[in-house]
Specification:
- The structure holds 2 protein chains of 2 kinds.
- Chain A has a domain of 196 residues.
- The longest helix of chain A is centred in the N-terminal third of the chain and has 33 residues.
- Chain A contains 11 helices and 2 strands, in the order ααααββααααααα.
- Chain B is mostly helical.
- Chain B has one domain: ABC transporter involved in vitamin B12 uptake, BtuC (Orthogonal Bundle), CATH 1.10.3470.
- The chains are: A mainly alpha, B mainly alpha.
- At the A-B interface, helix 4, helix 9 and helix 11 of A face helix 5, helix 11 and helix 13 of B.
Chain lengths: 292, 309
């Protein structure tokens, strides 16, 4: 393959990566934006989505139906788990940022162990709902991967509309700006927080269900998405949804293209260092507005 | 000087345990002592100065790798340990200079990212560092002051002496004027700035001291147990000292030892129920944050046992 087709392949892979990353990172960004807490267990919610998708797909005999069932069942289940976590754990901590981090670290260990015990240490595949192959002159490309990009775009658009146009989105944004004033206006802030946490976890799980036919379910798979989501959210500016989307696109594409040319570990070292330095020298992120 | 009594009592009890414990618990206790040194370092940063770092595995593993690689290249154990100590301090100084420009959650994430980058770098240069598999230290090189550290008795003795020195140093530090300025940073940074203390240099000094402890702990771990590797640089080794300190009681001199010992016992006791310590660590972390954020000794002290150091 010449340089041109190789670059095309890398860009395609990067786009798929960016789409999945955007979904997972938007969840993390929402919880940080509205609740001002960092959820370290976000990667584990992602992993739960994938593992549940496998479990559901096992129970349904036909492959396309199994995938659809997983898509409908796994994210709400993970969201419900997150709702319970919020009301029983985070609320008791009063959403203190540092305690929340420690508690969600504990939670992530628990979920990892749970998945290991009930699911086992092996990676398990879920069949893609269809096996269309797009034939380019130089190489064939999985049609399912392009479907993932399309689905992610649809979901992100829906989240955008939900936040901008719906009453619930308005209430969420109001709580983000000033939770005390929101409470004074009769908004049930506890419920908004639980809902936001559930929505964030659900989006992570959805991203995982979409990715499982590409990369298999495994109990440790939450680690990389967590790190990448962190990177995306921080580069994009903590709590800024638009920044998160732009950053996801840039980092997804960069990761796809760079890991074709350089060893992936080197790319990860550079990315983590960049994140640390962005937090130190430009805490509002590259696209966020300076803190008021 | 009254607080000297409980410290010496603990050290005497530990020395007695060295003669009384059966072999299995003997080795476990030596490990606990080394990890307690690591936790004391964490306690100085988190418990006394209020710096919640999620990246102390960096200093621990830097100390361990510096010591291990030096010994592989033929340096004797004593100087290699000193190299490990220095590596812990230097990494803490370098990351602290940058990370201390942030605070709170950002500080946690920045330290986490530095530790992550270091761990990945160890893997990337696996040819030199041994990567994830690490490498064993030859038994013949593991000698200190004529003691053969492959034997259980000398190993326990060296671990105990190291722990005793660090424990007493910690006590001396926190009861000194400088130690009180650390606590002032934790309690009210603005007010201590107004009183003329420089928060940046004070916190940086605390981090460097903390890093020195982590470095010597990592180096000692390598020398005493004969194995070094990048797996000691994973996030889990940043969480463990935090867990020990939270469990024993942040800001108490004996909390790190109590936390490390109790956690080792808990994981050992639970090994019949689960095959991995992850769940035990997770449950303990959540339980502590929700029900006892001050830890065991901190809660006791709050409930009237004012004499606890």
């Amino acid at each position: 393959m010449g340089t041109g087709p190789l670059l095309l392949l890398a860009t395609l892979e990067g786009t798929v990566m960016a789409a999945v990353l955007a979904l997972a990172a938007v969840g993390l960004s929402l919880t940080f934006g509205v609740m001002r807490v960092v959820n370290v267990a976000h990667g584990e919610f992602y992993m739960m989505g994938a593992v549940l998708a496998w479990a559901v797909a096992q129970a349904v005999p036909s492959a396309p139906l199994g995938f659809v069932a997983a898509l409908l069942i796994a994210p709400p289940l993970v969201a419900a788990l997150a709702w319970v976590t919020d009301t029983t754990l985070l609320k008791r901590l009063n959403y203190d940022p540092e305690s929340t981090i420690v508690a969600t670290i504990g939670l992530s260990y628990l979920l990892q162990q749970g998945a290991l015990s009930f699911f086992g240490p092996d990676a398990r595949p879920v069949a893609a709902p269809f096996s269309l192959r797009l034939q380019f002159p130089w190489f064939g490309y999985s049609g399912y991967k392009l479907f993932v990009v399309l689905a992610a775009l649809l979901v992100l658009g829906a989240v955008w509309l939900f936040l901008r146009r719906s009453k619930a989105g308005l209430v969420m944004r109001a709580t983000q700006v000033d939770r005390n004033t929101a409470r004074a206006f009769g908004i049930n802030v506890d419920r908004v927080y639980a809902g936001t946490f559930a929505l964030g976890a659900g989006l992570a799980a959805l991203a995982a269900v979409l990715v499982v036919p590409i990369s298999q379910a495994h109990y440790l798979m939450g680690h990389d998405p967590l790190l990448l989501s962190f990177i995306v959210v921080i580069i994009g500016g903590l709590g800024s949804l638009r920044g998160t989307l732009i950053a996801a696109l840039i980092i997804g594409l960069a990761d796809g293209i760079l890991s074709m040319l350089y060893p992936p570990t080197l790319a990860k070292i550079v990315a983590t260092l960049v994140v640390a330095l962005v937090l130190v020298f430009r805490p509002q992120g590259l696209f966020g507005a300076p803190a008021r | 000087m009254k607080a000297l009594v409980p410290h010496l009592a603990v050290l005497v009890a530990l020395a007695a345990m060295g003669f009384l414990l059966p072999p299995y618990h003997h080795g476990m206790m030596a490990r606990v002592l080394v990890m307690a040194v690591f936790a004391i370092g964490y306690n100085i940063a988190f418990g006394y100065t209020g710096l919640l770092s999620l990246g102390h595995a960096l200093h621990f593993c830097a100390g361990m790798m510096a010591c291990g690689i030096a010994m592989r290249e033929g340096v004797a154990a004593g100087p290699a340990l000193m190299l490990g100590l220095a590596a812990g301090g230097v990494t803490a100084l370098a990351t602290g200079l940058l990370a201390l420009r942030t605070a709170g959650v950002s500080f946690m994430i920045v330290t986490l990212m530095f530790a992550q980058a270091f761990h990945l770098a160890l893997l990337y240069y696996g040819g030199f560092t041994g990567g994830d598999e690490g490498f064993p230290l030859p038994g013949a090189a593991r000698r200190l002051f004529g003691l053969d550290l492959t034997q259980a008795g000398p190993r326990y003795a060296v671990a105990l002496v190291l722990f005793g020195l660090v424990l007493l140093a910690q006590w001396g530090l926190v009861s000194s004027r400088f130690g009180r300025s650390l606590i002032a940073m934790r309690e009210n940074e603005e007010r201590s700035r107004m009183l003329g203390y420089n928060p940046f240099t004070t916190k940086l000094a605390a981090l460097v001291i903390s890093g020195l402890c982590a470095g010597i702990a990592g180096a000692a771990y390598g020398v005493l147990f004969g194995y070094v590797g990048a797996s000691f640089g994973t996030t889990q080794y940043s969480i463990l000292p935090m867990l020990y300190v939270l469990l024993g009681g942040a800001g108490t001199t004996l909390g790190p030892l109590l936390g490390a010992g109790l956690m080792a016992w808990l994981i050992d006791a639970a090994s019949g129920l689960t095959d991995s310590p992850l769940a035990v660590i997770g449950v303990t972390l959540i339980g502590l944050v929700v029900f006892a954020p001050r830890g065991i000794l901190g809660t006791l002290r709050q409930r009237g046992q004012k004499w606890l150091p």
